[in-house]
Amino acid sequence: xxxxxxxxxxxxxxxxxxxxxxxxxxxxxxxxxxxxxxxxxxxxxxxxxxxxxxxxxxxxxxxxxxxxxxxxxxxxxxxxxxxxxxxxxxxxxxxxxxxxxxxxxxxxxxxxxxxxxxxxxxxxxxxxxxxxxxxxxxxxxxxxxxxxxxxxxxxxxxxxxxxxxxxxxxxxxxxxxxxxxxxxxxxxxxxxxxxxxxxxxxxxxxxxxxxxxxxxxxx
Length: 219
Prior knowledge:
Layout: H1 22-44, H2 47-54, H3 58-62, H4 68-88, H5 97-112, H6 115-127, H7 132-160, H8 168-189, H9 191-195, H10 200-215
């Protein structure tokens, strides 16, 4: 007597993560949104296109993000958060101020030259006049992540007496502007070829020397 045929087992499904894997679902959605924004630009991107790219409904996106600007803010926020995560793992307090600030600046300039970061920066910079909420999202993300990490280090240095800063939070903002302003200028008006001509080591050294002239303890 022959054995009865066994029922076939359905092959495992591929694609978006199952319900319940919220972190994985959100990461997949942000990945899809990143691809759409980089491919279409902000003006032509839409929630519908992101939903199609991610293989989800538009309702799924609106449950997490209130509009397109909020979704791009999340895309930018992930890039910024990755940078701040690297910065927050550093044991900066064991370093002299110049070494600590150099390490911070090298990480920031290295991450800022990432191709996705470059493209997203250009999107925000060129569309900010039409969509001011984009610039607000960029500033908010930077403040919550990178600015706070740098400000925390400067506050610790002021408490220890190795830095003389009346307003560490404002000093952190100014330090980051000094580090990034020329980089952003070249990205906007010269492109990658112009950026490649910038001697980042010399730039970082010069900025830190100037910053520490104003931040060194008075004798």
